[in-house]
User: Fold these one by one.
Assistant:
Number 1:
Amino acid sequence: MHPIGFESHDHRHCIAEGVSAAEARCAEEGLQFTPVRRRVLEILLEQHRAMGAYDILEVLRAEGLGSQPPVAYRALDFLVSHGFAHRIERLNAFTACAYPGADHAPAFLICRLCRTVAEASAAPRAQLDKAAAEAGFLIERAVIEAEGLCPDCRNAA
Amino acid sequence: MHPIGFESHDHRHCIAEGVSAAEARCAEEGLQFTPVRRRVLEILLEQHRAMGAYDILEVLRAEGLGSQPPVAYRALDFLVSHGFAHRIERLNAFTACAYPGADHAPAFLICRLCRTVAEASAAPRAQLDKAAAEAGFLIERAVIEAEGLCPDCRNAA
DNA sequence: AGAGGCGATGTTATACTATATCAACCCCGA
DNA sequence: TCGGGGTTGATATAGTATAACATCGCCTCT
Ligand SMILES: [Zn+2]
Ligand SMILES: [Zn+2]
Ligand SMILES: [Zn+2]
Ligand SMILES: [Zn+2]
């Protein structure tokens, strides 16, 4: 799957789809899409970048939605555990899922200059599955993150 | 390349090779393989597991080699930046390189029960390179980490 | 209506991970 | 001998994450 994040696109679509996919899944599964959770997802969806929990907390605090770390971490845990957002291990940060609703094994391309995060899906996972199978290892979660320069920053440099 | 770490093997060989590869490279490149750096590498080499900086610091402290966090972090930075050890992002921890001397793009299989870390090399990286190339992204560093159950823990469960 | 359960939130405190900063030291070469 | 680069010592602080417990709202069962 082609990575989403670098190329210019109708980003309102990403936002709308991200929110509505979450809404739908929560309705289906009886999960509570509370104001804090919705707002945190919206904040993440505003751009294809990774944000730290404390960055998000700052926004919540300014809006009166919560002021202590657990508020942000709980919302993020909810979003991540249900696949509406992903944790970027390399940055200790979070980003909205670019393929909400799809069952997928994400891989990320992280620009170290503009911090844009593009999400690719599936393909890079295949070889890892193969290596794991050979070793008798059962993969429960895979972290695939590449750090470098996005096309724009590459051209600028 | 077949992952190193799960299967039983002559582990003294891993230790000896890890230390001597580092020794050799440091001699070649005029780097200082100081007592703290050597000892930290030895600690990491003792088992195919990831250790946190503070775990390592505890050992150093007990041996009188240093007692403050920067001591451990500096040694680890040195080892990682020269490829003698790797950082495991998923665990905020470190492990000795299983292919010292080889120019390689590591991928890790991390057991969530016994914390054993096996290092595979090269193959899982290919698809990621492909996805990146298509997107015009320049990879400078890739993190490929799978978390799950190793063969032993799988059988035990 | 009242009791109880459950999940979400509020709040405080604390644990864990990592780095900035500056002083001291050591080795080596000018 | 003097200086410079790199390493170490030591203090302080920044940044990330969770434990623990009180409270609240909502639904359900009696
Ligand atoms: Zn977008
Ligand atoms: Zn996704
Ligand atoms: Zn070994
Ligand atoms: Zn295991």
Note: Helices of chain A lie at 11-29, 35-45, 53-62, 69-81, 123-135, 151-156.
Number 2:
Amino acid sequence: MQSEFVASRSADPKDSRDSRESRNGSPQLDAVSLGIIEQLQEDGRRPYAAIGKAVGLSEAAVRQRVQKLLDQGVMQIVAVTDPLTVGFRRQAMVGINADGDLEPVADALTAMQEVEYVVMTAGSFDILAEIVCEDDDHLLDVINKRIRVLPGVRSTESFVYLKLKKQTYMWGTR
Amino acid sequence: MQSEFVASRSADPKDSRDSRESRNGSPQLDAVSLGIIEQLQEDGRRPYAAIGKAVGLSEAAVRQRVQKLLDQGVMQIVAVTDPLTVGFRRQAMVGINADGDLEPVADALTAMQEVEYVVMTAGSFDILAEIVCEDDDHLLDVINKRIRVLPGVRSTESFVYLKLKKQTYMWGTR
DNA sequence: TTTACATTCTGCGGATTTCGCAGCTATGGG
DNA sequence: CCCATAGCTGCGAAATCCGCAGAATGTAAA
């Protein structure tokens, strides 16, 4: 339950006077930290010394920066897998429309373990949620018995995945 | 350009007689490998010895299994970041409808660096693509000048992200 | 300018981890 | 039965990680 990770972190008051920050509360990253992230996006286990050589820093400095990036929640180093290989054969994106405040709906979705991804959007859906399930029955159950019954939910539309073509984790590498 | 990673790998003929395989060509994972993945989902840099202790294997055996999982493409160990923090302020999911064969369209999307995620779906969209951009201009440019002009593309519908609520990488941890 | 303080970097040992390899065991053909 | 393969263990050498002390650097107040 630890590697759950949300883009807009709530600005923690006690570190809000920390470093340079942009107006949304996110710490500003310099070119060196960006370089470190880039290295770790290629290989999450790359040794600190090798990273240091690439970005022009000592091993210890890289280590400190990486630790800080992890502590701040800017970056995570994790294993990512192919869901199909790990036994989840049905995935779907679900578009949701709801009445009133969307936060409770989004929070309820977030609490479901089958839901990998929740985002509030502008457009003809209020919320998009990605669901990873073991089989059709499981998927049907989640959509009909758990999502469509949430208070406020007016309608849903499902897009069952037929073939995943691309999935990268290369932000910042451009 | 290396940590791009596609769920349904094309069955490479030369390793198709490898190990146990399910009918979609994916190697079957036993409980021990699942346990290793789970450990690395919590912390991608966890030492092999610690993982071994958790799953009941020697350090060397864990190392061999991890290497194999990486080689097979079942798993990747990478840094994942919050796009907002790294300077990408506009994200959107784009639903696409197209005529004829969808593969060329999906391939063209896959080739774009702004596109993080491409999936072919059943439902009222043929393809869903997630786009990560620096600003509104950039986003507009990608959608209008690069996606909507692709041969075969009939229509698109965009869902601009307002707030990302959840994003996990915990497949297999349930 | 000077002083005080906080941040970040470097260098360096000691502890830990990784790495490569040889040997052992179990399984499945031929 | 014998051979080949896959997977595990143990172990020593090399590399890496880790904590810490001291040196730069930057900032803010006096």
Note: Residues 7-25 of chain A have pLDDT under 50 and may be disordered.
Number 3:
Amino acid sequence: MDTIGFEQHDHKSCVQGALSAVEAQCAAHKLQFTPVRRRVLEILLSEHRAMGAYEILDVLRDEGLGSQPPVAYRALDFLVSHRFAHKVERLNAFIACTHPGQTHTPAFLICRNCDAVAEAHAEPTRGILGKAADEAGFAIEQAVVEAVGLCPNCREGHPACA
Amino acid sequence: MDTIGFEQHDHKSCVQGALSAVEAQCAAHKLQFTPVRRRVLEILLSEHRAMGAYEILDVLRDEGLGSQPPVAYRALDFLVSHRFAHKVERLNAFIACTHPGQTHTPAFLICRNCDAVAEAHAEPTRGILGKAADEAGFAIEQAVVEAVGLCPNCREGHPACA
DNA sequence: TGCTGATGCGTTATGATATTACATACAATG
DNA sequence: CATTGTATGTAATATCATAACGCATCAGCA
Ligand SMILES: [Zn+2]
Ligand SMILES: [Zn+2]
Ligand SMILES: [Zn+2]
Ligand SMILES: [Zn+2]
């Protein structure tokens, strides 16, 4: 099941599966999956939405795991740089990756009504953007693809908005 | 000539052309192209790069056109909402549109070495992202497409980076 | 003319996001 | 057991953005 995010699902196993995958990745690549890093990923996974760094920090602080911004940002940097989480630029927020370990270019569908975020996939080097980059002689290394709109639930709920 | 941005060009006429186009648009749509708004666009056009709001504000302040952040942000909101400028989310910065008036979905090629930004075009509702959105029942209204990499000049200058 | 609403601007204050810099802890290496 | 590299703790600061209020201007209208 390769859900892209707005459907109902077995959240508990979704969290467990992602955690296990990340653990395996860290073990395989000798990455230190420290308590803070692990906890931040757990928070992101369990909330299943994009969260600001300070929002995460609030949780860490309550749990005695850290109280200053760098604690949260460092953990997030680790997760993002290893693709266990992604930054949603449009929201200045972070979200757990829905398929850690697989190399991929995330693309996000962001609901402007309920703030739900789903992770899809982009292939930046293909399509019209890749063509433009080729013509310009630009070497794409990384891409941010984020669509803002209405998620299926909100289209139903507020048909006027659709 | 539909340049997408890294080449040398006749910058003076590039600025003039864009300004004229925006003036015409404003006249046609009864938009108030006030001195502050005009000056902010001129600054963005003449610098021909992505600039932070405070950087723009510094210029305005020197010229006696405004000294507090809301002055810059309000002018930028106007320019962005009418598509005379765009926000580059990845840089938290703003850049003049290279073809104001035409309805379009901008996509940016951002050089990580020299910070040059070129505007290309995306068609978010097509391609793999549009397909994913359709399948998910998500209605795309707007898209952020930003590629980070090396521009042609920097690829030459630092071949090791390429 | 005088009222009224809409829009833009001036200013203060504050909020939200992110980083620098330096000190400390600790495990792995030799 | 000294050295080194990596992670964490903490204070301070930098950067990006908005809320809220009041005033000025101008168009539409009684
Ligand atoms: Zn992902
Ligand atoms: Zn929604
Ligand atoms: Zn444009
Ligand atoms: Zn460059």
Note: The first strand of chain B starts at residue 85 and ends at 88.
